[in-house]
Design a protein that fits this description.
Length: 323
């Protein structure tokens, strides 16, 4: 399987610089924030979101390299993403993230909530200092979408009537919005045409949806070691994703188990087995592939370059995580 790191070779040095800058930007104010920043930005994340911003910068401005404003946008994107993860882990009471202890399990809930708030606030301040109202609007919408996605997920726990469309809407808010809007914002900073900006948004949206669907499949098929969290944790918490929603269409008993919230012994194991023996996983793979295909099509008018090729190969990488 291709690694994310090798895909990002056109911007590898840019991503290294980004990681060091983030530690300095976030940790400058207070020792506990520096410790949290070291913990967050040293946890071996894929850096997918800032990589997309940096690759679009290089693909749309081939003669300039990455501009300072694109670098700052990439940092803002990773700050927003990380802030959302810190808060998600508090809400979900998650002990591990990427195989290492979460901020709240290491530093306590109070510090975790405040660290997440600080990251959102700092991202907003740096965003305002880009002095580009259209970009400010795009990334401000992302912060609203992240909250909307988390609220929707909370309100639909153990809801066996959830539709695939509602699941995709929630997935957009929680994952794809940030990739879509930061991709478009990168295009706006490069002063691309309105049509190209919309295509970059479509690329980010559908690549983000494919990424989330794949993550949701891996929750059923991956090991705790590879996931960095216990397998089946989404289902256990009542977060119904594509594999379970498709399985519900053909496994009536699954509905009963979920609606009683796995209160009887062996319920969770039985539910996981019912999903595994249904068409849910195959149909979810097809759904992810269909969104990856739309993402590829959205880049048809982007001029050929190593960075464009990396953006295209990124959609293959997203799907290859399943195999």
């Amino acid at each position: 399987m291709t690694s994310a790191t090798s895909l990002f070779s056109p911007v590898e040095s840019d991503l290294q610089l980004l990681t060091e800058n983030l530690k300095k930007l976030v940790g400058a104010r207070h020792p506990i924030l520096y410790a949290a920043a070291e913990h967050l930005f040293g946890a071996g994340g894929k850096r997918l979101r800032p990589a997309v911003v940096l690759l679009i910068s290089r693909a749309t401005l081939p003669d300039q390299g990455v501009t300072p404003r694109h670098r700052r946008l990439a940092e803002i994107t990773e700050m927003i993403h990380t802030a959302s993860l810190v808060h998600d882990d508090v809400v979900d009471e998650a002990e591990l993230r990427r195989g290492v202890p979460t901020v709240h399990s290491s530093f306590g809930n109070r510090v975790a909530v405040l660290a997440g708030d600080f990251l959102f606030a700092q991202a907003s301040w740096y965003l305002a200092n880009l002095d580009n109202l259209a970009v400010v609007k795009l990334l401000s919408e992302v912060i609203m979408d992240l909250a909307e996605g988390e609220i929707r997920q909370g309100l639909t726990q153990f809801d066996t009537g959830l539709s695939i469309e509602a699941y995709l809407d929630k997935s957009y808010y929680k994952t794809a919005s940030l990739i879509a809007n930061s991709a478009k914002a990168a295009g706006l900073l490069s002063e691309v045409s309105p049509e190209m900006a919309d295509n970059l948004y479509r690329y980010g949206k559908h690549m983000g949806l494919a990424f989330q669907i794949v993550d949701d499949i891996l929750d059923f098929t991956g090991s705790a070691e590879s996931l960095g969290k216990p397998a089946g944790s989404d289902l256990k918490s009542g977060n119904l994703t594509a594999p379970a929603l498709y399985a519900l269409e053909e496994q009536p008993y699954l509905e009963a188990i979920i609606e009683r919230e796995f209160t009887q012994e062996g319920d969770l194991e039985k539910a996981l087995e019912l999903v595994q023996t249904s068409q849910g996983l195959d149909r979810s793979r097809e759904l992810a592939a269909s969104h990856a295909k739309i993402a590829v099509e959205a880049l048809a008018d982007l001029p050929a370059s190593d960075s464009r090729q990396a953006l295209l190969r990124l959609t293959d990488y997203v799907l290859s995580r399943l195999y």
